[in-house]
Specification:
The protein is an alpha/beta fold. It has one domain: Alpha-Beta Barrel (TIM Barrel), CATH 3.20.20. 41% of the residues lie in helices and 17% in strands. It is built from 11 helices and 8 strands. The protein has an 8-stranded parallel β-sheet. Strand 5, helix 7 and strand 6 form a beta-alpha-beta unit. Helix 2 packs antiparallel against helix 11, helix 8 runs parallel beside helix 9 and helix 9 crosses helix 10. It is globular. The chain starts with a strand and ends with a helix.
């Protein structure tokens, strides 16, 4: 079964103009009616680092989860952020960005990889205590733009460390849009076969021209969990000066349905979300 994760947080976080809290909540509430498996709605991080997300707790208070089957995911960058997020029963998943790149780990969370791995363990322990699930994003999961070593073996060593911590979900992130179909296919196939206890997801950033081949390669490699953002808005503001957008959810849906996958989405609610996205993002 395919799981779709809609990422309004990722779409909003790099925007320079602050989006009003009520507008954020209205948009996310609309997304909650579509039928996505999970909505990545906000983050508990330093407001200095990501000013757009400074109102995540206030947004959460405005969300209506009564008729939604979607789960909520919040991104955290340290143990304190995890402790803050875990105060809210509505949140099902915490997401932490662990990087295969030492350079990007410093840029993204102001930590070394070794320090970040300690943080992962601390957050995992907190999640287990609270009955929540940690989703670990392996940033730069398909290549490295900083001249550091990268190989499938290096990536697999990170997955092995996370497996030892009993991490159940790992999302492999093409943070700057460099992944090639053959490496996507091979990396997913190898890791899914080697670590059957882990659910692997794909968090691709891509130009519109290459998104279809990346999704199809992920499917062929065995991936059944895909992140997207309506109209492809967003990107990682910590990665490069030029943002590479998210997969456009509407195109992701089309590719998956064309391959015969039943997504069980409410298309009328999705159409309303598309209209509202145009208002939110302009």
């Amino acid at each position: 079964m395919i799981k779709l994760i809609e990422c309004p947080r990722d779409a909003m976080q790099g925007l320079p103009g602050f989006i009003d809290t009520a507008i954020k909540a209205a948009y996310i509430n609309q997304l909650l009616q579509v039928g996505f498996d999970t909505v990545d709605f906000g983050s508990f991080v330093s407001p200095k680092a990501i000013p757009q997300m400074r109102d995540t707790a206030e947004v959460l208070d405005l969300l209506d989860l009564f008729n939604s089957k979607s789960k909520l995911l919040a991104i955290v960058a340290n143990t304190r952020g995890a402790e803050d997020a875990l105060q809210f029963d509505q949140i099902d998943y915490l997401g932490f960005p662990l990087s295969v790149s030492e350079n990007f780990q410093q840029r993204n969370t102001n930590k070394s990889i070794s320090e970040a791995l300690i943080t992962v363990e601390e957050i995992q322990n907190l999640c287990e205590t609270k009955g929540k699930t940690l989703v670990t994003y392996l940033s730069m999961g398909f290549g490295n733009p900083y001249g550091e070593d990268f190989s499938p073996e290096i990536l697999a060593s990170f997955v092995s460390r996370l497996s030892d911590l009993d991490i159940k979900i790992i999302s492999l992130s093409d943070t700057i849009g460099v992944a090639e179909p053959e490496s996507i296919r091979s990396i997913f196939k190898t890791n899914i076969e080697s670590f059957p206890e882990i659910e692997f997801g794909a968090h691709f950033h891509s130009t519109p021209e290459s998104m279809k081949e990346k999704v199809l390669a992920g499917l062929e490699g065995g991936c059944r969990r895909f992140d997207g953002a309506i109209k492809g808005f967003g990107g990682c503001p910590m990665a490069k000066d030029d943002l590479v957008g998210n997969l456009a959810t509407e195109h992701l849906i089309a590719v998956l349905e064309n391959k015969g996958h039943e997504l069980n989405l409410d298309k009328n609610e999705f159409s309303e979300a598309m209209k509202l996205a145009q208002v939110v993002f302009g």
